[in-house]
Amino acid sequence: MHPNARLIETLYGSLRDDKPKAAADCYAADARFEDIAFRLEGREQVLEMWRFVCSRKVKVTFDSVVADDQRGRGRWVARYTITETGRKVVNDTTSRFAFRDGLIVEHVDQCDAMAWATQAYPFPKSLAAGLIGPLRQYKARQLLEQFIRENPA
Fold first, then answer.
1. Residue 90's beta-bridge partner residues?
2. From CA 148, how far away is CA 152, in angstroms rounded?
3. In what order do the strands lie in the sheet with 88-100?
4. DSSP three-state, residue 114
5. Are 41 and 32 in contact (CB under 8 A)?
6. Among 12, 38, 111, 152, which residue's CB has the most CB atoms within a 10 Å radius?
């Protein structure tokens, strides 16, 4: 197995094992992360996001990890409950990675935003959360900032 494929498995395994610091250690200091909720710059922001995600008691499984010296990809499934609504979510996500010097410099997660929103929120809020990316990102940023205030590192 390529070392960068092992790095992806380390990242996913750290999330599965509720170890956000170990997950953040997989990233370069200037790494970028993007998904349907977040646009983050730097390892410290990524660490705070993984701390937030792990606080939600996420159950993680993963497979289909492949990588070479420059690029990689994988698939992970996160099962968790949305704190605000009490609704259960199964989020099937594909990841794309770029590497430099044995660390992740770019991580882009993709999932079906509408499928996620339909599970997370009742109608009509699910429609807005699924279709309006800036609204979803604004709400995610608010939740992350509240988490950081209430749970300093």
1. 79
2. 5
3. 39-41, 27-34, 103-110, 88-100, 71-81, 59-67
4. helix
5. yes
6. 12
Give the H/E segment covering residue 33. strand 27-34
CA dist., res. 143 & res. 56, Å (int): 12
Q: Which of 109, 144, 112 is nearest to 130 (CA)?
A: 112
Bridge-based pairing state of the strands 27-34 and 39-41: antiparallel
pLDDT digits over 78-90, tens only?
A: 999 999 999 999 9
Q: Which domains does the chain have, with CATH numbers?
A: 3-150 (3.10.450.50)
- Angle formed by the axes of helices 133-150 and 43-55, nearest 10°: 80
β-partners of residue 79 are 59, 90
Locate tokens 């420059």: which residue?
70
pLDDT of residue 123 exceeding 90, the answer is yes
* pLDDT tens track for 1-44: 999 999 999 999 999 999 999 999 999 999 999 999 999 999 99
